[in-house]
Design brief:
Elements (H helix, E strand, L loop, with lengths): L13 E7 L6 H11 L20 H6 L6 E7 L2 E7 L7 H10 L2 E7 L9 H12 L4 E6 L8 H12 L7 E3 L1 E5 L10 E6 L4 E4 L6 E3 L3 H22 L2 H8 L6 H13 L4 E5 L4 H6 L3 H11 L9 E3 L6 E2 L9 E10 L3 E10 L1 E3 L3 E5 L15 E5 L3 E5 L2 E4 L2 E3 L3 E5 L9 E4 L5 E2 L9 E7 L2 H17 L4 E4 L6 E5 L2 H13 L5 E4 L6 E4 L3 E9 L6 E11 L6 E5 L8 H17 L10 E9 L7 H19 L1 E15 L3 H10 L3 E7 L4 E9 L6 H8 L5 E11 L2 H10 L3
Parallel strand pairs: 1-3, 1-4, 4-5, 5-11, 6-11, 32-33
Antiparallel strand pairs: 2-3, 7-8, 8-9, 9-10, 12-13, 12-24, 14-15, 14-23, 15-22, 16-21, 17-18, 17-23, 19-20, 19-22, 25-27, 25-28, 26-27, 29-34, 30-31, 31-33, 34-36, 34-37, 35-36
Length: about 725
């Protein structure tokens, strides 16, 4: 032990487990229950009053919701278990995926209070991600004493939505035992039946007490035990045990437990366990001992989690989970502390990380070229202190070996997703997939003092959160912060204000509209002024016509006979282009036209470059008034993946947004991909709307495709809103 933190000397004595589930499922409460059971905590806090172990900063305490990854180490049977508490709200899926990268197994926490709806589309999507990575998973059911709780129905729903449509690989290890119903009909879970050992574990006294089942409990457990044995044998692929079972032979609990652990580690079997049923349940440790036993015995060690890294110009190779190998670690989360500066939470995949080590920091490489929020970097830096995270606390440790998770300080360049490696053998660990921020938020500095600090504040904010993207929109001149959703936006702006002292105001996100001409026209621009002394004289006559989309602005000189002197031809073009850039109706650039200069007049004394520029601009405005102006709006190419249950609702919504559906194709099990073209005007809040439509099961990607004429009713609305 080092300052109350369990230390280990080899990766085989470490387990890294991420707790996954939607907001309110009870993940943080379960973490505290496990910490209490393991002796890492003396008493539990409450999420409701901001005293829980995982409330990392003031924002989480105010919102009563986790918004970033938190790690709590618990010791059990000489094994260090790093419990990784992840946010449950969809806006913080970037933090959740970071937690999954740090983990070697996942516990899906599902609240029985929500009934079968607790196994939603978002949970299924995360389950599929873990399955694709071959990550072992188990399910923990919480809030089993809630009014709507139905254990059998929820287990069936888990098998239906998270399994392959059956319940063969998702089977309970325990069956809850309920106490007597109170006057209000409420029944508290007082214990459980362990199907492995065929024993009853009574928690009614606050501590687990094992005993024999009653006749009624034995009958209840008989069918569940048979189903469990068959699932364990299938998941472990133990043919000898299968033969013994088919022959009717007795299977001892030790053999069954060993096969269960093998089946879980191979990700072929996903046991369902009972966790803290409520905050009161967490204090009695309901099911926590059994869960800790499964984590130690059934979940894989860090050495079984293969992560690849790429050296300078070399192919990606798996890292050796060996404390004696070269260092390779990845930054899982970045935060700022008022006293120690930047703090990086890192997962060590290879080697050993010591305080004061000089390490190589290599950028994650996921940022777009020129992104001001994520500049590319490849530098050597000295590590400050090394500490073990314990929720919002940090406890100093001498080193972090391969497989462990630690906090390090004073890495000025390290961002979330970056790789720390040995200076003699720099590598980049293949980064985890980041969600694409698709909700635009236009911001401006509140005051001059904020304007001076805005760029620095945004740079530090995006260094902490790679799912934020900063854009300086060249078309509209706006500063745009791209977020994952409204809650993500609110947290980002609150951090900007409270942590970095920068206040910003929100403004309406403006679209990069264009103007073009509806037809052909011929017009004259006449700029004649005489007010004594040197005057101004310039007359030009132009013809205009529209061109195909993407042609830009073409200027053609068709003057004959020297009507416009050669030295002023460029002046007319300059005036035309300047006016086109300013627009002629609503202030948007005029594009996709050909302007032909056909005639004009000049004065030997009063004509000048400035006069012909003004005449060219006047001629273009007059020609536009005659030909008519059409607004062009940006069209995005959109790809949407949604659960089949919500396909009709999403297609109907796309139609209401003036979308053109190009086709639908199956996308894995129970999901469909929709390809469509949708006006960008209709997508400004789609990141939030799709989540509501598809109950969290939808995701989409968008990219600019082209500009198209805007329908007349929409165009009139835009013109009415345009400043005069």
């Amino acid at each position: 032990m080092a300052d109350g933190v369990m230390t280990v000397d080899r990766p085989e004595r470490i387990r890294n487990v991420a707790l996954v589930g939607h907001s309110g499922a009870g993940k943080t409460t379960l973490v505290e229950a496990l910490a209490l059971a393991g002796g890492a905590l003396d008493r539990a806090g409450r999420v409701e009053d901001g005293t829980s172990l995982s409330d990392y900063d003031e924002i989480e305490r105010r919102r009563h919701r986790s918004v970033q990854v938190s790690v709590v180490p618990v010791g059990w049977r000489e094994t260090k278990i790093n419990l990784i508490d992840t946010p449950g709200y969809a806006d913080f899926v970037g933090e959740l995926r970071a937690g999954l990268r740090a983990a070697d197994a996942a516990l899906f926490v599902i609240s029985a209070a929500d009934g079968a709806s607790g196994v939603g589309g978002a949970t299924r999507a995360l389950w599929d991600e873990c399955e694709a990575a071959g990550m072992p998973r188990a399910i923990v059911l919480t809030h089993l004493d809630a009014a709507r709780a139905d254990f059998d129905e929820l287990v069936h729903a888990c098998g239906l939505f998270l399994g392959d449509g059956s319940s063969e690989s998702i089977v309970p290890l325990h069956i809850p035992i309920y106490g007597k119903a109170g006057a209000d009909g409420h029944r508290q879970v007082t214990g459980l039946i362990d199907l492995l050992s065929n024993r009853v574990i009574d928690y009614s006294g606050g501590q687990p007490v094992a005993g024999k089942p009653s006749e009624e409990q034995a009958r209840l457990a008989e069918r569940g035990r048979a189903q469990l044995i068959e699932a364990v044998i299938a998941g472990s692929e133990d043919e000898s045990l299968m033969e013994r079972y088919l022959e009717g032979g007795e299977i001892d609990p030790q053999t069954l437990t060993a096969d269960l652990e093998r089946a879980v580690a191979q990700a072929g079997f996903h046991p369902v366990l009972i966790g803290a049923s409520a905050p009161e349940g967490a204090r009695t440790g309901l099911g926590t001992v059994e869960l800790l036993e499964l984590i130690v015995g059934g979940f894989p060690t860090p050495a079984e989690h293969v992560v690849t890294a790429r050296g300078n110009g070399s192919a990606a190779e798996p890292l050796a989970c060996d404390p004696r190998a070269d260092l390779a670690a990845e930054v899982i989360r970045t935060s700022s502390d008022a006293y120690v500066g930047r703090v990086s939470l890192v997962r060590v995949f290879s080697g050993t990380l010591h305080a004061d080590d000089i390490v190589h920091v290599r950028g994650h490489g996921l940022a777009e070229p020129g992104d001001p929020g994520h500049p590319e970097h490849d530098v050597d830096e000295r590590v400050g202190s090394v500490a073990a995270p314990f929720g919002k606390q940090q406890r100093p440790i001498p080193e972090a070996i391969a497989g462990d998770i630690a906090c390090v300080t004073k890495l000025a360049h390290a961002e979330t997703g970056d790789t720390l490696s040995a200076t003699a053998a720099p590598v980049r660990i293949e980064p985890w997939p980041l969600p694409e921020p698709l909700l635009p938020v236009a911001v401006r500095a509140h005051a001059k003092s904020d304007e001076d600090k805005l760029s620095t504040g945004l740079a530090r904010l995006t260094a902490e959160d790679p799912t934020l993207r900063v854009e300086h929109n060249r078309d509209t001149g706006q500063l745009v912060l791209w977020c994952l959703g409204e809650a993500h936006r609110d947290v980002a702006l609150e951090r900007l204000r409270t942590r970095f002292g920068v206040r910003v105001d929100l403004e309406e996100y403006r679209l990069a509209l264009r103007e073009t001409l509806a037809g052909q026209a011929r017009a004259r621009g006449r700029h004649v002024k005489q007010s004594g002394g040197h005057g101004q004289f310039a007359v030009c006559e132009i013809e205009v016509r529209p061109l195909p989309t993407g042609s830009g602005l073409e200027f053609v000189d068709a003057v004959v006979g020297g009507a416009v002197p050669r030295q002023f031809i460029g002046s007319v073009e300059k005036g035309v282009r300047a006016q086109a850039a300013r627009g002629v109706v609503a202030g948007y650039p005029l594009v996709d036209i050909r302007v032909t200069l056909v005639d004009g007049k000049a004065h030997s004394v009063d004509s000048s470059d400035a006069a012909f520029q003004t005449a060219g601009a006047l001629a273009l405005r007059e020609a536009a008034a005659q030909a008519g102006v059409v607004l062009l709006e940006p069209i995005d190419e959109v790809s949407i993946v949604v659960a089949d249950d919500f396909l009709g609702a999403v297609l109907g919504d796309l139609s209401s947004r003036r979308g053109r559906v190009l086709g639908t194709t199956p996308h894995g099990s129970g999901r469909t991909r929709i390809d469509a073209e949708v006006p960008e005007r209709e997508l400004r809040n789609y990141a939030v709307d799709l989540r509501s439509l598809a109950h969290g099961s939808g995701e989409f990607h968008r990219g600019y495709l082209r500009h198209e004429p805007m329908p007349a009713p929409v165009s009139r609305t835009v013109l009415d809103e345009a400043p005069t």
